[in-house]
């Protein structure tokens, strides 16, 4: 179902695409149309996160006929795909290096949705750039700071603080410039399922961004995760990225 949802999304952003799927759903015939863009809305399948759909839109959006502004609804953070937070922190700065920038380039999280039921909502907007700026980007540089977000939805707001403390206990040994925001969504903005998680990014002096993230197990699946463990494991994942 998530692949069918993805094909419908591609059909929405293009004009004149021909898509045929056989009855058993094993063969796909796809004839691409023009990248059209414009203002759109799409309900993503909750079995994969919005990041799965957003990754391809990030590649296509700069080359549309009209600037793309799309509202995507579904799961914002899960354990499978890159979360919306990570794409916002890593993909947007990368697009800016290629000369795709301006106020109209943004990913905005209106509501968070955790699996299995989702209920999140984001807005992705991107200006049109027909030509990319070539870049030479070979020296990653030394890490200068660490930023992050600890989010909690439909659970105690204290969960986010506990994750931040445990992550800092590890990262403080590495460098002092660390700031992890806590993001506690309330009411309508917190989607339909409880959960919490963390997204960390390390930035170098040359503007390279390394990221790591973890989310709690979906409601009713697997063992309960302690926020302290999740914070520590996320910090270790980030340090492993830096080491690599």
Share of β-strand residues: 25-35%
**Alpha-carbon Rg, integer:** 19 Å
Largest sheet: 4 strands, mixed
Helix content estimate: 25-40%
Instruction: State the domain count.
Output: 2
In CATH, the homologous superfamily of the largest domain goes by the name RNA 3'-terminal phosphate cyclase domain
CATH class of the largest domain: Alpha Beta
Termini Cα gap: 36 Å
Tally of helical segments: 5
Instruction: Examine the secondary-structure arrangement and name the CATH architecture of the largest domain.
Output: Alpha-beta prism
CATH topology of the largest domain: UDP-n-acetylglucosamine1-carboxyvinyl-transferase, Chain
> Pairing-aware structural class of the strands and helices?
alpha+beta
Q: State the shape.
A: globular
- How many β-strand stretches? 12
Order of helices and strands: HEEEEEHEHEEEHEEEH
Write the layout of secondary structure elements.
Elements: H1 2-13, E1 14-15, E2 18-21, E3 28-31, E4 34-35, E5 37-43, H2 50-60, E6 66-74, H3 84-97, E7 106-111, E8 120-126, E9 143-153, H4 158-171, E10 178-185, E11 195-204, E12 209-215, H5 227-243
Parallel strand pairs: 5-6, 9-10
Antiparallel strand pairs: 1-4, 2-3, 6-8, 7-8, 9-11, 11-12
Helix pairs in contact: 4-5
Report on the structure:
Helix content is 28%, strand content 32%. The protein has 244 residues and is an alpha+beta fold. The chain has two domains: 1-126, Alpha-beta prism (UDP-n-acetylglucosamine1-carboxyvinyl-transferase, Chain), CATH 3.65.10.20; 143-243, Dihydrodipicolinate Reductase, domain 2 (2-Layer Sandwich). A hairpin with an 8-residue loop joins strand 7 (106-111) and strand 8 (120-126). The model has no long low-confidence stretch (mean pLDDT 95).
